[in-house]
Amino acid sequence: MFPRKDLPRAALALFTALVVAGCAARPETLRRPANEQVLQVKEEVKWKLGFWDVTLVPGTYVGKFEDEAGTYFAGPPMCVYLTGRPRKEDALAGSAWECGILLPKKPGNEPTVFHIIGTNRPLMVFHPDDRPDFSKVAPLAPRPDDMSGAKTALAFTPLNSGAGIVGGALTGAVLGALIEAEKGTFRDFKSQPAKGWLLQAPVSALVP
User: Fold this and answer.
1) CA pseudo-torsion sign 116, 117, 119, 122
2) Which residues contact 152 (CB under 8 A, 6 or more apart)?
3) pLDDT for 42 beyond 90
4) Rounded Cα distance, 129 and 53, in Å
5) What is the rounded distance in angstroms from the CA atom of residue 93 to the CA atom of residue 175?
6) What is the pTM of this model?
7) Residue 47 above 90 pLDDT?
8) Is 18 helix (H, G, I), strand (E, B) or coil?
9) CA dist 49 → 52, 53, 188 (Å)
């Protein structure tokens, strides 16, 4: 994990990278698509966000919402995660989120990956190849039904231990308040995968 004295700075950097981003949507303002479709992401998709390494996990992404911008495809649990080291000597750390893919309606626009504010879980245990050990991650409780809203507990806690207790507490309180206001929002990342990353086209969902 990050050294205690660097926790407020690391948390603020992560918050800035995630919340102070481009497009956002609230699920309650979206409509359900007439016909449910799915996207199959067959391999991990990786890109950079500052010093963070971002990974979108493979799996089935289901079109649950739409608006004028496009269709929002909900991914499997904890489908995107960030890992990184602010400094070379720091231990690897990161977080995982509920996420999805926005497939735009406008021709020529690239699909974007979004995460859901308030669903993050800290990653602290890693395999030798730096992949997170998801068996050591606290489970989501419970996962929002059809991703209609994020009702999970926040993973950001007041950073009020060790040196800088006052500054840490203030930073944690401010981040907690801001994230609480954003909770449930679909928000894209400031950086996105390379152009042309999504080759698969959506297909109709299978009816049982």
Assistant:
1) positive
2) 118, 119, 140, 141, 142, 143, 144
3) yes
4) 14
5) 19
6) 0.74
7) yes
8) helix
9) 5, 6, 12
Residue 10, classed as helix, strand or coil, is helix
Higher pLDDT, 61 or 175: 61
Tens-place pLDDT, residues 117-160: 888 889 888 988 888 988 888 765 444 445 533 333 323 222 23
Residue 123, helix vs strand vs coil: strand
Q: How many CA atoms, within 13 angstroms, populate the side-chain half-sphere of residue 63?
A: 22
Q: 170-208: string of b/e by CB count within 10 Å (b at 16+)?
A: ebbeebeeebeebbbbbbbbeebbeeeebeeebeeeeee
Pair of tokens at residue 65:
């919402």
d(CA 82, CA 99): 12
- Residue at 128: amino acid letter: P
Cα–chain center distance at 62: 16
Considering Cα of 181, then 160, then 190, then 101, what sign does the dihedral take? negative
Q: Rounded to the nearest 10 degrees, what angle do helices 7-18 and 165-182 cross at? A: 20
